[in-house]
Amino acid sequence: MEISRENFRTMIFYDYKCNLTPKQCIDQLHLAFGDEAPSNRTVYNWFAEFQRGRIFLCDEFREGHPSTSVVATNVDAVREIIERDRHMTYREIQASLDIDMKAIHTILHDHLSVWKLYSTRQTIDFLSSKNVELMSHCPYSPDLSPNNFFLFPNIKKKMHGERFESPEAAVGTFRTLISEVTASEWEKMLRKLIAYAKIYRS
Questions:
Q1: Which residues are within 8 A (CB) of 197 and not within 5 positions of it... i.e. 6 or more apart?
Q2: Whole-structure pTM over 0.70, yes or no?
Q3: Would you say the C-alpha torsion 182, 184, 188, 194 has a positive or negative sign?
Q4: Is residue 97 part of a domain?
Q5: Name one GO biological process term (predicted).
Q6: Which pLDDT tens digit goes with each residue over 171-195?
């Protein structure tokens, strides 16, 4: 028997009304349906929707043809999702709104590009106001990005194999580990960065 998105949403809504946590709902869905169960983020997203008062479970935004999916209502819905969680994937947006991938791509890149540039502009303006000298980043050079060659690999190594009760718990651990990086570790990293930069320039 094939379970539709609406079927899964009904189950999620039932668990929500029974005062289960998103984690408990996820566990039950995985126990019953295994790999066919919705992703963890989808369950958390629907719990958030229900907490805001949403009660309809149908595919609210589908118009029947991909070309009609790029409408103001969908643009606003995608913007709201992205502003709520910038790490949402295409598939998770699709699962939430049930609009086609092409429409999501068009909305994100054509209609919300101003929003993305605005975020970048804010950062640049803030740094400039603090008299921080801005330097252009070398394209496609992860070995010159401290996050790529130092911070993220170390954090990933420390978090490897850990299980978390919720996304919030994972974020909390991530922030704690970042705050535990010592000044001497940063200094050592910066010396390496200078050495890498000299090699790059030569």
A1: 144
A2: no
A3: positive
A4: yes
A5: DNA integration
A6: 888 888 988 989 898 888 888 777 7
